[in-house]
Design a protein that fits this description.
heterodimer; A: about 425 residues; mainly alpha; Amino acid/polyamine transporter I; 17 helices; about 0% strand; globular; B: about 425 residues; alpha+beta; SH3 type barrels; MgtE N-terminal fold; CBS-domain; 18 helices; 21 strands; about 40% helix
């Protein structure tokens, strides 16, 4: 007992240090992340590894901005957009976020379905059960306790690092591909472009900025404690992207190498790992995917309901009763029910849907960034905490690049290229 | 009397005395120093720049704003000193709904419109925080006005009367100019004020705590979640913080100050009145999870010879909280605890009765070092209203009240 208590104490101590930045970054490697990175590795081998360094820098910059705005203003991003840009702009932004996040919710349920299918459990059983669990966790006000369990379980992510190592990749080639700039000619292919947008969109997802800023504000982190949060954000972002790098490498060293360039479902990804890394990696893969999906599935609908209700001025919060905040609870419920229902459509291509949702993330991202950049450079709002030039340059560059890539992709699709 | 909304006024065409189109409405402004609800002027965007059109010079509002003066007479709008600009300061911002006791976001502002003798009077009726205002603004200019009106009639309004709206302004100088005082907010129960304040951003909380009367601020501060309490005390000036802490229950004040950094505690203590400072400083010495750390030093203790009348006389002048009077304690010349008399017994007894004859048996007390669990058990076992705390010489040093026990137990639930 005594041992257990001490262990529990250490455990809690760890989570006292782990903050919103680390949690957000962890949820970032949700089923959308896992499949998009896997697909990137399977389809292009090491060729997309170059995205990891710039995307990590951009992720840190963007997340740091969210955390800073949360700490300085004490308000959520949708609150600030509403106060500074008015109702119409907020409404359009919220509509965009709602659609994008709905795609993400679908992706999480797809992850749940896929991971459970590996254990032979039909999606018609796993998805409804998990949807009810997720719904109950939040409505019954148990989220804070459960979050710790999820977070502990997200150490499963380390399994990807094991999986990557066990797959015996060509290390030198992988490192070279990480630091070598991409060849411009590659961007002419729509499928390559599509994947680049997907990778960036899944790493720097729009919902993260809303979620992180609200968490920081809600936690009551002030300007003075902000330095700790910044460290929390940076560590979280780096951890996330190291995991992402290993997922790509693991898939490149196996699926890509063996000519399996298209992941159709979770079994594809996991089964291709099985002959090389044994049963061990296979079970870890599916458990990790399940935890990641369930974790994100309990955060995303909630975060979306908060974001939209705050922006539009509806009552929100799990502290309120259903009758006090009907819009909040209905929106939350609808996201889960509809998200789960889409996955139950027979024969729906799970992985294609997941990757598409991440591409939509990428396409919506620049709009969120533009709002953030306008807000964070307002002196009335941020005082001396406005962006430094280097931050503005990186964030604007990310915005412009994402718009450019999306325009190229849309142009390519309209022209009739293959997706 | 007709109703018109801010979103309908904004952007509507302004005609001057000669009937010529001279601009569009940019802002609707109140001058709270003169009148809290009457619209003072419109800011009109004209080709020559922004102009202020006093409402006394407006003859009609329906179907475009008709001015009774020439556009050239309107003063240039430079600066908004003392003006509450409804579009900038109110629309889309958060305000406190004092009646509903919550923080709400403004979707639109509704005015009552009266016109007599070619003069228009516009008064703010309330703020719209429901779907009606939101849809009106979203669809304005996108569907024909008549269709919109038919649609909106079907939506039940959620309007907060202007008298129940408390604005939040973080700039102290503007607060004075705009006469924002939180007078209505301060009439609420401290626990309700605390709930409202917890929904605000840090700067806004600070603003509310700077404006509230000290006693009210202290009551509300006691009810806040510990995390928010700390943040509020950190943000306030130390003299303002000291003024508020002085008004708090000494035990609550000590608990709170004990959670702050030593420097900050020192800054606040220095600014306090000597008497209150000493009380709080003494309590600060104790560990928080012991009886001494939880007790208050505001109680009534009388000599063993005192009568019921003496007790009642003392209560009349007692400055502490009412619940601290529910038991009167008896001490001998050394300060040793010798009896506890419930208020009810004192009230029911003839006034000459010696208090000692009314004392409760057995006399329950606990030592300063008693752990939380111990004294919580005593409360439960003997159904106590208050529990006296004694030192190693059996001298009375403080009293634990049920609110402390409930707060403590709730924190563990």
């Amino acid at each position: 007992m005594k041992f257990l208590r001490r262990w529990k104490f250490r455990f809690l101590l760890f989570f006292a240090v782990v903050g919103p930045g680390f949690i957000t970054a962890n949820v970032d490697n949700d089923s959308g992340g896992i499949f998009t990175y896997s697909q990137a590795g399977a389809q292009f081998g090491y060729a997309l590894l170059w995205t990891m360094i710039p995307v990590t820098v951009a992720l840190i910059v963007v997340q740091e901005m969210s955390a800073r705005m949360g700490a300085v203003t004490g308000k959520g991003l949708s609150d600030l957009i509403r106060e500074e840009f008015g109702l119409r702009v907020t409404f359009l932004m919220m509509l965009g976020i709602l659609i994008t996040n709905f795609g993400n919710v679908i992706a999480e349920f797809a992850g749940i379905a896929g991971s459970m299918e590996l254990f032979g459990i039909s999606k018609y059983i796993s998805v409804p059960i998990c949807a009810v669990i997720v719904w109950l966790i939040v409505v019954k006000g148990q989220y804070k306790g459960v979050e710790k369990v999820f977070l502990a379980a997200s150490f499963f992510y380390i399994t990807y690092i094991f999986a990557g190592v066990l797959a015996k990749p060509a290390w030198i080639e992988a490192v070279k591909a990480t630091v070598k700039p991409p060849e411009l000619a590659a961007f002419k292919h729509d499928s390559y472009l599509y994947m680049v947008i997907g990778v960036i969109g899944t790493t720097i997802a729009p919902w993260m900025q809303f979620y992180l800023q609200s968490s920081i504000a809600e936690k009551g982190i002030t300007r003075r404690q902000y330095k700790t949060s910044r460290l929390d954000v940076i560590v979280g972002c780096i951890f996330t992207d190291v995991v992402a790098w290993f997922i790509i490498v693991a898939c490149a060293a196996t699926l890509y190498l063996h000519g399996n360039h298209d992941i159709r479902d979770a079994a594809d990804a996991a089964q291709s790992l099985r002959p090389l890394a044994g049963d061990y990696a296979y079970i870890l893969f599916s458990l990790g995917l399940f935890n990641a999906s369930l974790f994100a599935a309990s955060i995303l609908p909630l975060s979306t309901a908060y974001t939209v209700c705050e922006g539009l001025g509806f009552e929100s919060g799990v502290g309120r009763k259903f009758s006090e905040a009907p819009a909040f609870y209905w929106l939350y419920t609808a996201l889960i029910v509809a998200g789960g229902a889409v996955i139950l459509i027979p024969g729906i291509p799970l992985v294609k849907i997941i990757v598409l949702s991440q591409v939509v993330n990428g396409a919506v991202l620049p709009f969120v960034l533009i709002f953030m950049l306008f807000l964070i450079n307002k002196k009335e709002l941020m005082d001396e905490y406005v962006n430094k030039p280097a931050f503005n340059i990186i964030a604007w560059a990310t915005t412009v690049i994402m718009i450019g890539l999306t325009v190229l992709l849309v142009y390519g699709t309209v022209r009739g290229g293959t997706g | 009397m007709a109703t018109v909304s801010l979103s309908e006024l904004l952007g509507s065409t302004v005609y001057d005395a000669s009937g010529v189109v001279s601009g569009r409405v940019r802002e609707v402004a109140l001058a709270p120093q003169e009148d809290r609800s009457r619209v003072a002027l419109l800011i009109v965007k004209t080709p020559a720049g922004n102009r202020m059109l006093p409402l006394t010079a407006v003859s009609a509002i329906n179907g475009g704003i008709r001015a009774s003066t020439a556009a050239a007479e309107w003063a240039a709008a430079d600066g908004s000193e003392g003006l509450l600009l409804l579009s900038r300061d109110l629309l889309d911002q958060q305000v406190i709904d004092v009646h509903g006791r919550k923080v709400v976001r403004v979707n639109d502002v509704d005015f009552h419109h009266d016109s007599a003798q070619n003069r228009s009077v516009l008064r703010v009726g309330g703020v719209d925080v429901g779907a009606r205002g939101a849809i009106r603004r979203l669809l304005k200019g996108m569907v024909p006005a008549a269709v919109l009106r038919v649609l909106l009639v079907r939506i039940p309004p959620r309007e907060i009367p202007w008298d129940f709206v408390d604005l939040i302004e973080t700039d102290p100088a503007r607060r004075v100019r705009l006469k924002i005082s939180h007078e209505r907010l301060s009439k609420l129960h401290p626990a309700d004020i605390a709930d409202i304040v917890e929904d605000l951003a840090p700067d806004e909380r600070e603003a509310v705590f700077e404006t509230l009367e000290e006693g009210v601020a202290a009551g509300a501060l006691e009810e806040l979640a510990p995390k928010v309490q700390r943040a509020v005390l950190e943000s306030l000036d130390s003299d303002r913080a000291a003024d508020i802490v002085e008004e708090m229950e000494p035990d609550a004040a000590a608990d709170l100050l004990g959670d702050l950094s030593d420097e900050r505690t020192e800054e606040i203590l220095v600014q306090m009145q000597p008497e209150e400072r000493q009380e709080v400083a003494e309590l600060l010495e104790f560990k928080e999870n012991t009886a001494a750390g939880r007790m208050t030093t505001e109680y009534i203790a009388l000599p063993v010879t005192a009568t019921a009348l003496d007790a009642i006389e003392t209560m009349r002048t007692f400055e502490g909280r009412m619940e601290n009077m529910s038991t009167v304690y008896l001490t001998d010349s050394h300060g040793t605890l010798s009896g506890a008399v419930p208020l009810v017994k004192i009230v029911l007894a003839p006034s000459s009765t010696p208090l000692l004859a009314l004392a409760q048996e057995p006399l329950i007390s606990c030592h300063e070092d008693a752990k939380e669990k111990e004294f919580a058990e005593l409360f439960d076992k003997y159904n106590l209203l208050t529990l006296p705390v004694i030192d190693e010489h059996n001298r009375l040093t403080g009293v634990i009240t049920p609110d402390d026990v409930i707060a403590m137990l709730r924190a563990k639930l």
